[in-house]
Amino acid sequence: MAELKLERAFPTSQENLFAWISDGAKLLQWWGPEGMHVPEHDLDFSRLGPWHSVMVNAEGQRYKVSGQVTHVDPPNSVGFTWGWHDDQDQRGAESHVTLTVSATESGAKLVLDHRELADAEVATNHNQGWTSSLRKLEAQF
């Protein structure tokens, strides 16, 4: 198993940053790598239960991912399971993501912790995707 941990600082309050990682309308503004749009989703990390999103790239390729929101602790953290779907909509291996927000002297810090990834190659792919998505989040501030 592999894991991925990314940290970013934001010039905003802990409460506002938490809203950007939990509220569905705000999530849609940065969810998915650059160049992707999300035409289908149930993104709401402010409550426990199922979630899903379908990301589509410029060539029309669809990438579906789904899981369960496992914990919500405003304004500190949210956790959810993550599993990609194949072309037959069968959900694959499950991993777990925790987004943790903390106050800093100049704003707030986000720590993204993606655990239980199958191997280093999967972790590298997720690193690229999350890094791109976080660039979109950073652009919101």
Automatic annotation (TrEMBL):
A matching Pfam family: AHSA1
Protein species of origin: Ruegeria denitrificans
Family to which the UniProt record says this protein belongs: Belongs to the AHA1 family.
Signal peptide start and end residues: none
Domain Activator of Hsp90 ATPase homologue 1/2-like C-terminal span(s) in chain numbering: 12-139
Protein name from the UniProt record: Activator of Hsp90 ATPase homologue 1/2-like C-terminal domain-containing protein
CDD domains named among the record's database cross-references: SRPBCC_CalC_Aha1-like
